[in-house]
Amino acid sequence: MNPLLTTKAETFRSGSDNLEFYHNRLIKLTNGVLLFCSGGEAEITIDLEKHHIIPNTNIMLLPGSILSLRSASPDFQIHYFAYSGEMMKVACFRLDPAFMHFMKENSCYTHTRLETIRPILRMIEASAAIYADKENQFRESIAQNLLQIFFLDTYDKVQRYFTKEQLEGGNRKGQLFKKFIHLVHTNCTMQRDVAFYAEQLCISTRYLSAITKEVGQISAKEIIDEFLTLEIKVALQSTNLSLKEIADRYNFPDQSFFGRYFKKHTGMSPKEYRAKRI
Questions:
Q1: HTH araC/xylS-type domain: which residues (predicted)?
Q2: Are residues 32 and 143 in the same domain?
Q3: How far apart are CA 219 and CA 22, in angstroms?
């Protein structure tokens, strides 16, 4: 069972886990999760980025994030507070959108200051207590308030400890690159044309390609293909959709074209990949 999954009946969850469910699997989260490493070490990927997790590392996963556990020490343990997308909207609706973008770009952060660790530990303790109190008629409201307190406190710390340049993504090229990555993450399942993203950013395709080469050392098309391939892998691993249904979902003209595209970027056919991951 996925320990980080919320449902309509259970809009938040809190507890401890070793994330074994995510070992060598790509799981796309439909809800948000706050995690805090209390022991051991692990290697995880969030979307396409690798992260080394050690004690006092805080991990923030927004809805739509793709999580995988690559390896972990025997004593690896995390505390988690999973919450629905609706609960997150209510908790964050007054916060600057740039802050949420910054949090997504910096999803893993290892704390060294006791003053930043203490609020997280208090929230973990409080969320676990209210989750365990099934008879409390106000438990969802309390969980909602705990989440909002956490985001407000984090927002305050970010404003104090990070420069405006760090929050906004450095120079204009860096800002455009981050906006491009966000657009690809949101739209790659339906839009694979570089021109679409250039138009959204109000720049030319040539300039967009130059930015991705300079900032990310990779072409704009390669970034789009990497994100789309990741989404397809998730569908092959975690759904029972037929190959034709997956081809339709991701806007391929037919199953044959879909198969050639996937094999070009992974070295194996969709059927081979699905069989290998079972």
A1: 178-276
A2: yes
A3: 30
